[in-house]
Model the fold of this input.
Amino acid sequence: MPLMPKRVKHRKSQRGRIKGEATRGNRVIFGEFGLQAEQPGWLPAATIEAGRIAAQQYLRGGGRLYIRVFPHKSITSIPLETRMGKGKGEPDFWAAVIRPGTVLFEIGGVTEDVAKVCFARLAHKMPVRVRMVKKRTM
Amino acid sequence: MSDLLEVTARSVTGTQACQKLRQEGHVPAVLYGHGETCVDLSVRRDAVEAMVRHGSKTVELTGAVKSPALVRELQWNAYGTIPLHIDFLRIDPSEKINVVVPIELRGECPGAKAGGKFKQVLREIDVECTAQTMPEVAVAHVAHLEAGNVLKVKHLELPQGAHATADDEAVVASCLLSDQKLEDATDIGTKATESNDE
Done:
């Protein structure tokens, strides 16, 4: 089941603009290795779930996977073959807003080689360019 | 390990001046502590990157200021690739300071091979030490961690003069058997089967 908010104040949100770089959520905190976004974009809940499955099937309980983003934003769409107008469409899916520098996933308890392969599998699912980062001690 | 870091005094402050400094290949820094006045400094970026590569938390400042200092905080850009600012804290080599030290696991856990589930609980630890005895890492030897055992803070290897401020009985890493709880696990070096035989 993809992630989605339990309850929201407003069902529909405006698209907004993704400006600047991530000023928070840009460090590896929980694990030892992280997957950091290099581009801005929306990360749909289904994609987060696809990434989670890809990573956990590779890890097979050998390490721990942390998901650092949550899809808070509802994305609406209008059905096909609909005439223009008649108001905003209905919510279609939920997405996380990603700014460059955001750490999307983290892995702990595995070696660097394992994390590298795992993130390579995970990166194929991502709609933005990503790179692997290590936890900093300084 | 203590690196030599040449610093220059900085008369300009503020966002724009600091951005200009960064474009010129310098990193703005500040030195404070011990009730003395705060000094604005700048350091060459390549020297800072070398310091990070070496993993030095204490440095010997030369140039505009001559003093041993602790790297209190290092700010990075959004990608964690470019150092933006450094906070140096004045230290006395014999003064006790508290630092956070990462825990490094060494060796292969035999318990994990025997069917136990290995888990690292603590990843860093608060250590009280002098600047001279500050460890880079706290070493945890897991080569003797059998299935059903736990490795505690008291088993960590720290240099002479440094000691962990955390509870000695706090668990650092565990290798538990299936359906075993953390409370039932025994200390490293004692076999879990021995207690069952008795």
Summary: The two ends of chain A are 37 Å apart (CA to CA).
